[in-house]
Description:
Number of strands: 8
Largest sheet: 8 strands, mixed
Strand content: 25-35%
Shape: globular
Strand order of the largest sheet: 1-2-3-4-5-6-8-7
Number of helices: 9
Radius of gyration: 17 Å
Structural class: alpha+beta
Order of helices and strands: HEEHHHEEHHEHEHEHE
Amino acid sequence: MPDSQETQETDLTRLQVLRLSRCNETQQEQVTELFVDAYYKEMSNFSRDRQALIRAFSSALDPSRLFVLLEDSEPVAMLGYATAKHRVLHPSEDAFIREFGVIRGGIGYKIFSYEYCRTLPIEAAAIYLECLATAPQARGKGYAKRLMNWVMDTIPAETIYLDVNSSNQAAIHVHKSLGFQEIKRRFDPIGMMFMGYTHLLIMRRRGTKATTGTAQR
């Protein structure tokens, strides 16, 4: 993907979108913290040690598939996209065992890998949005919606999917406002055991661009 698509100034000139791979080391560390903080309520059922979670996920996010919204160079929102062959999150078994011990870390690694690394049952020309998160101080400003629109306008796809836990009514409302429609509900035993929810809503909308052989996906 050319640099002109990698970076974009919005109508608010303090905002900028970058791939994680183009963020500096400090920004990348802040993105990991943003991810953990955004999902801490769910992950705290597995571990309440925030710093251990940050260390465990420090190299888990695919920097080529994650976009970051920066405000004055500070990460305020993030969003990744997966395809039928490639996911955004890649937990490290060694990191999980180092932070949580052989038994708990090994089990946690298998659980997170099953949930976030398995192949997605979507079409080759589709993308799946995942790892959406907004910094606490940036919530309520429409940044998540802005970043979602940016990614959907930038990454070629005929169909776009995402999932959201059924209790997150605010997120469901945002997704529906962007044209997503629920296509099914899936019972999630891992979510029930570790994440604090029982069902995922699978949602879908049409993409804004046709795929091409040269586009980075």
